[in-house]
Amino acid sequence: MCLEAEKRVEEWNNCVRDQWNAKSVYVVGKATAALVRSLGLTPLGEDTGTAEVLSRVIIEREDTNIPPLFFPCGSIKREVLPTALRGSGVPLETLTVYQTAEHPNLEENLRSYFTEQGTPASIAFFSPSGVKFCLETVRRLSGDQLPQIKFAAIGPTTEEAMAAEGLRVSCAAEKPTAGHLAAAIAKALQ
Q1: Which of 102, 113, 154, 158 could form a disulfide with 133 if both were Cys (CB 3.0 to 4.6 A apart)?
Q2: What is the pLDDT of residues 41-53, one digit of tens each?
């Protein structure tokens, strides 16, 4: 249902929203929590920061005799949440609702940056997909200067993806927020 259509907003506000609020709405971070709140729903788990921690919250709160939890997700999600929930008997139905794809101008934009600014002193990755889509180009453009670049990760999942690609991660945010990333970078630079 498109909530931006005027007649749908009224239907949402008058009856559907309350039906959804009767259920638990789990999120892993602050950005998703803000979107959920903008719909008039109450998010749970926004401070968990990772699927692993969120799964523990859900397992503690939910009974195994419930209808399946609905998990809308992206095309390259990790299996941490589904595996943990199913392993604890919490029923789950997943539905891929978006495709993660490389920005069509990514390589051109990176090449332009490297040409105009030179090899960056540091690079922060905000997702495993960012690592997947950018790293080959960054390696090619930085050449033998790659070891001098300091790499930062928004959180542990991104840090794992970077390490799996052989990068030395200089710092990782304690929680996946811009503020925590800035604090980690500041600490690494001291």
Answers
A1: 102
A2: 999 999 998 889 9
pTM above 0.85, yes or no: no
Given the structure tokens 């309350």, which residue do they identify? 18
Residue 39 domain-assigned (yes or no): yes
Bridge-based pairing of strands 122-125 and 150-153 is parallel
87 and 110 in a single domain? The answer is no
Where in the sequence is the domain holding 137, given as residue range(s)? 105-189
Please, is 176 exposed, middle or buried when counting C-beta atoms within 10 Å of its C-beta (0-12, 13-18, 19+)?
buried
Q: Does residue 1 sit within a domain?
A: no
Dihedral of CA 161/164/167/168: which sign? positive
The predicted structure's pLDDT at residue 104? 94
Residues 170, 152: contact at Cβ < 8 Å? yes
